[in-house]
Specification:
Layout (H helix, E strand, L loop, with lengths): L3 H4 L7 E2 L4 E10 L5 E4 L7 H4 L3 E8 L8 E3 L2 E5 L1 E3 L2 E8 L3 E7 L6 E3 L1 H6 L10 E6 L2 E15 L2 E10 L8 E5 L1 H4 L2 E6 L4 E6 L1
Parallel strand pairs: 9-14, 10-13
Antiparallel strand pairs: 1-11, 2-3, 2-4, 3-15, 5-13, 6-16, 7-8, 8-9, 8-12, 10-14, 11-12, 12-13, 15-16
């Protein structure tokens, strides 16, 4: 079973260096059965657990940046997979390419693998703006591309910027969902029920 501190601690894989960021509040608490819960709404925490809930600061894009246009459902519950220390959900990009994405509230930007970019017919030989990202192997300069849409459980965000970099060696993982996608929603990760709950803000 994944260590709870690792599930939301994926910023060790990457963290945005280029743009200023503001903090978003995530709360972690453990119930009497030892089940770990994550939420961005402290009112979701039962009263008897609130005193011991951990308050985690996550990064999200600065308020000067325009939020992406969104549409579709208001909320959804998406089955998740746990693989080692990460939480993974299925997503559809540009209404055509399906893949598994790590939920990373510590990353400012969504990232896709080179294989996913190729599947989306994104020609990386063209000149794209780049951004420096810190990875386990040092700083990399990843190209930034525009995605028409990302859909998770019927909740869609359109016109989203994503970086292209192979963050994970596992080819079954297509990338990660960063806060430029996740900050459009209130989220709750139910580790016992293996479900990610999203509700549009």
């Amino acid at each position: 079973m994944a260590r709870p501190s690792q599930v939301l601690g994926l910023s060790l894989f990457l963290c945005c260096l280029a743009f200023p960021v503001n903090a978003a509040d995530i709360y972690r608490w453990v119930d009497d059965q030892g089940v770990v819960h994550f939420t961005d709404n402290p009112h979701n925490i039962p009263q008897k657990y609130r005193q011991n809930a951990a308050h985690i600061k996550a990064k999200e894009p600065a308020p000067g940046q325009q939020p992406p246009k969104s549409w579709s459902l208001d909320k959804a519950s998406i089955p998740l997979q746990k693989k080692g220390a990460v939480v993974i959900v299925p997503a559809t990009l540009n209404e055509r390419a399906e893949g598994n994405f790590v939920v990373d509230t510590g990353a400012s930007y969504t990232m896709i693998s080179h294989a996913t970019a190729k599947e989306l017919s994104i020609d990386l030989s063209q000149k794209f703006p780049t951004m420096p990202f810190q990875t386990a192997n040092g700083v990399v300069h990843a190209p930034l591309v525009k995605l028409d849409s990302i859909d998770v459980g019927g909740l869609q965000v359109r016109d989203l910027t994503a970086a292209v970099h192979d963050v994970f060696p596992d080819s079954s993982i297509s990338g990660l969902l960063g806060l430029n996608f996740l900050s459009n929603f209130r989220l709750d990760i139910d580790t016992k029920g293996s479900v990610l709950h999203l509700e549009r803000k």
